[in-house]
Amino acid sequence: MENESQMKIGWSGAVLAGGESRRFGRDKARAVLGDKELIAHVLQTLGEACDEVLIVTNEVRRFEDLGVPVVSDLIRGAGSLGGLLTALVHAEYDRCFVAGCDMPFLNARVILRMLERADAHEVVVATLRGEPQPLHAVYSRRCIPWIGKRIVQQDLCMFHFYPSASTLYLEEAFWKDLDPDHLSFMNINTPEQLREAEELLGRCERKHETRAEGGVAWPRRNECRNR
């Protein structure tokens, strides 16, 4: 592992796409929301905040057409914790923001604000209603040994290793001015939730069109998630 003086300066972003989509009934990562697939929404936002973006999956061929590095899970059957381990091993930079493939309303400004706090900590994680959100968090490669230990113990809860690390919990007051409706944490698990996301996206588009007709600037659709 690199020492502090050898670490590249920058931030990685990783999308975990190894789930089986049981509740969705088909591959939710490639389900379409608006004019692009769910995973494409995530990749776009991470690309706005991070210097490198990669996908972690157990089926590499599913995502080879998306124009970013795709890496295979190092440990099968270890869930999201195994995906996190794989992301940290393959990430170009020491700090890596990790999200799920089904989170289309991530907010680049929230992510950047978190990344800016990451140098002094091994984990920086947003909390929602007092609960840590491990798939909306920044991790250092120094977490790899703790994650590996938990996997060996078959303790696959993503945040059980947090007490071993220097962990900064960011409460709602830290990010709510950028995302007052908590859209960053919306994930799509069912077709019904996809329809709800379509309605939300449609409302953003209609507001944009109404303001544009009146000569007032309004965020473009891809900015609705970043308000």
What does this structure look like?
The structure is a single chain. It contains seven helices and nine strands; from the N terminus they run E-E-E-H-E-E-H-E-H-E-E-H-E-H-H-H. The strands form two sheets. It has a seven-stranded mixed beta sheet, with helices on both faces. Strands 2-3 form a two-stranded antiparallel ribbon. It starts with 10 loop residues before the first strand and ends with a helix.
Q: Compute the separation of the termini in Å.
A: 38 Å
Q: Secondary-structure element order, as H and E?
A: EEEHEEHEHEEHEHHH
Strand order of the largest sheet: 5-4-1-6-8-7-9
**Low-pLDDT runs:** 210-227
Estimated structural class: alpha/beta
* Approximate shape: globular
Number of helices, where a helix is a run of at least 4 consecutive DSSP H or I residues: 7
Structure described in brief:
This protein is an alpha/beta fold.
Topology:
Layout: E1 11-16, E2 32-33, E3 36-37, H1 38-49, E4 52-57, E5 70-72, H2 79-90, E6 95-100, H3 108-115, E7 123-128, E8 131-140, H4 144-152, E9 167-170, H5 172-175, H6 191-213, H7 221-224
Parallel strand pairs: 1-4, 1-6, 4-5, 7-9
Antiparallel strand pairs: 2-3, 6-8, 7-8
Helix pairs in contact: 1-3, 2-4
